[in-house]
Amino acid sequence: MRRLALSAALVLSACGAPPEVSKSAPPTLVVDPLPGMKSFAAAEMPATRRGNAELARDFLELSFSMESGRALPVFTRFEGPITVALTGAAPGTAQVDLARLLARMRAEARLDVRQVNGPASINIEFVPRDEMRRLVPAAACFVVPRLSSFAEYRATRHKAQVDWTTLTVRERVAIFVPSDTSPQEVRDCLHEEMAQAMGPLNDLYRLSDSVFNDDNFHTVLTGFDMLMLRATYAPELRSGMTREEVARALPGVLARINPRGEPGGAAAPMPTPRAWVDAIEQSLGPGSSLNRRRASALKALRIARAEGWRDSRLGFSYFALARLSLADEIEVAVTGFAEAARIYRSLPEGEIHAAHIDMQMAAFALSSGQAAEALELCDRAIPVVRRSENAALLATLLMIRSEALGLEGRSAEARAARLDSMGWARYGFGPDAEVRARMSEIAVLTPPGNRG
Fold first, then answer.
1. Nearest to 434 by CA among 34, 29, 132, 6
2. Cα 152 vs. chain centroid, distance in angstroms?
């Protein structure tokens, strides 16, 4: 189940809910009508660089546990060709993004998957967000077994029929996606929920290079994710195998499909205590006051330090606390972001995480009139974000860059960056009103007296 992306008190998240427009925000120069929506060209993500022994551990942990910590008794997958259908009020961009995703799955994961118009193995139904949230308040989108429609889910959601632990083979799966959200959120849901409908059901916070991670830094399937899906459908495996049987087969599977994987590998990762996961989820989830969420973030950071972690879990603990301190604890926020950035930059797959922090730090620089520093941070992050296909984050960085260029009197460049940002914002944030709201929020960061 996909959780809502990292919610926070201020709008400079670029990966969460639509912004609330500040009443003090000045009018922003926005072209009317807005330029056309931009989208990413087809691209293959870089292959994972991990050793096969490490990949085998990850595969077992992802495939034999649920996010809740419940164990899955046997390995399950679809047996035979996989078909996919779109139903409900699908947004116009959904078909294009699904076609791109299926093409990547065929090319990178070697999956036998195609879209059909009739009954399908995987039915993706688009449902109004409010209707979804009445049943599952904390999920942006989600996947359930043995069903094909939201009406079926409404009738059976408390029954064993939708319990993944009771499966021995996958035959029908339903994915529910909001029909009234941004194109990027639709695409992100398609990637994450399709991956879990077909492959591993668990999420691991220690994975810095995967969508199988509730930190939501990655928005599209990575090279690691495609390898996990390819391994899932290896002919050496079959539904109903036990963990021990899969473990015995995996070395041969990975040696065949990932011959570049080193025979050795990193030491086994330290386990993640449930108390840390609960604290992180409480700190970032809806329904609690800012003070309670910040207390949970502090608890998560204390646990991470006590465990002696030096990986993405420690970085995310600092990041969560920093995000929750933006409103009234700026020094804590800046320190937290700096520590998180230091950790992420030490990790082989931490560049997109660091780019999120560069955006936050660029916003701080802009608000204090340090245009050159804001530009340096944006220019470092933008190429990373383009490669990661995060249009919302890219649009926000371009908006900050436009304001910083304006501070330096580089009007033509500022206008070009602004126009570029609007095209990406239409994909990342959706309706024109949300694009204008985001631009106003960025404009208000510019110190008074310096606004163009």
1. 34
2. 28
Question: Looking at residue 139, what DSSP letter applies?
Answer: E
Number of continuous H segments (helices) and E segments (strands) in the chain? 16, 6
Structure token digits, residue 54: 């490490």
Match 């955006």 to its residue by tokens. Answer: 359
Beta strands 82-88 and 113-115: pairing type?
Answer: parallel
- CB count within 10 Å of CB 336 equals 25
Q: Rounded to 10 degrees, what is the CA torsion of 237, 241, 244, 249?
A: -10
According to DSSP, the residues that pair with 122 across neighbouring strands are 84, 173
pLDDT of 391 over the 80 cut = yes
Residue 2 predicted with pLDDT over 70: no
pLDDT range class, residue 263, cuts 50, 70, 90? low
SS3 letters across 29-95: CCCCCCCCCCCCCCCCCCCCCCCHHHHHHHHHHHHCECCCCCECCCCCCECCCEEEEEEECCCHHHH
The total number of residues written for the chain in this structure: 452
Tell me the pLDDT band of 27, cut-offs 50, 70 and 90.
very low
pTM over 0.85, yes/no: yes
Terminal Cα-to-Cα distance of the chain (whole angstroms): 44
Q: How far is 47 from 254, CA to CA, in rounded Å?
A: 13
Assess contact for 366 and 445: CB atoms under 8 A: yes
- The residue assigned the tokens 């992050």 is 381
- Rounded to whole angstroms, the Cα distance separating 174 from 211 reads 19
Q: How far apart are CA 149 and CA 88, in angstroms?
A: 10
Contact criterion met (CB below 8 Å) for 182 and 428: yes
Amino acid letter, residue 188: D
- Average pLDDT of the chain is 90
| Res 16 pLDDT > 70 | no
Contact yes or no for 30/436 (Cβ under 8 A): yes
How far is the C-alpha of 176 from the C-alpha of 193, rounded, in Å? Answer: 9
Q: pLDDT by residue (tens digit) across 341-390?
A: 999 999 988 999 999 999 999 999 999 999 999 999 999 999 999 999 99
The mean pLDDT of 423-429, rounded to a whole number, is 97
Parallel, antiparallel, or unpaired: how do β-strands 82-88 and 139-145 relate?
unpaired
